[in-house]
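User: I'm new to structure prediction. If I give you an amino acid sequence, what do you actually give back? Let's try with this one:
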Amino acid sequence: MSAGSGISFDHLDRLSDRRGLYEHADGLVRRVEHGYCVDDNARLLVVCCREPDTGVPGRLARIALDVVLDAQDHEGRSRNRMDQTGRWTDDAGTDDCWGRGMWALGVAAARHPDHAMRHRARKGFELGLRQRSTWPRAMAFAALGAAEVVAGDPDHEPTRRLLADTLDIIGPAPSGAWRWPEPRLRYANATLAEAVIAAGAALGRPADLQRGLALLAWLLTTETHLGHLSVTGVDGRGPHDHDPQFDQQAIEVSAMADACWRAHQLTGDQTWSRGIALAAGWFHGDNDTGEIMWDASSGGGYDGLQPTGVNRNEGAESTLALVSTMQRARSFAVAS
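Assistant: Good question. You get back a string of structure tokens that encode the predicted 3D arrangement of the chain. For your 336 residues, that looks like this:
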């Protein structure tokens, strides 16, 4: 798999059954005892919506949509954990799984080629609009779906309100050297910047669009080390943390690729191609330890970059991040 090659869904298919995409793998083998999560099935729906509605992506999109919709309660909150028998094991809420579900439903409602899929996704999205989260990242994920809906329905006020609420909860960045709206970088950092960019553009608020672009530019500079991407590790990064961090997760890389892709789509500025190239390069070994982060034989992504090597389990999150990043690199290459 390269930036210009076809995208493989083979490993995602291997990790799935009729109920959904399993979360974890032991090497190549899905770990059914850990069940499924909405977070991954929402991501699966997003990447499937970027492909033609045929073959494995077409089939997996329908499975993923079923999971995301079934996770919703009657007020639009979302559960996240389903066991291998199909039983939900947690309570519905508005944390990240709600936000990622809203992201996926918004993308499917706006972009899936099948009318029935778009209709079902739009109903689920509008149900989820009843809710808000106190968590900035959950709101940021939801805003990515909302921006897709507003692109096709610019006067839909409930969706516009969600975007405005997202801008409020993320808030401004401070002045000075640490130009980030939180005291530490945590996870899905580029998604916060992307959400501000997307919301600012969708609402016609150029100051917010520029704020998001500035956040992304600062983050890309902060997470570039010796010419390669060096994303924030699982323990986070503060103002005084400068050395490479571990474990690095593939999902951070795909978030950067997504954000840079959106920035390029909205501005036409070719400098954002650098972020996409750095993200794709991270998987190909242009990273802090020089390790290849995907399995060419399976199409799966490895679960983490560690200081002494690689976690070679090929779980859903890392494989989805690989596929998503290569989709962005492919689409950027075509657009360029």
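You can read the tokens as a compact description of the fold. Here is one thing that stands out. The CA atoms of residues 147 and 202 lie 6 Å apart.
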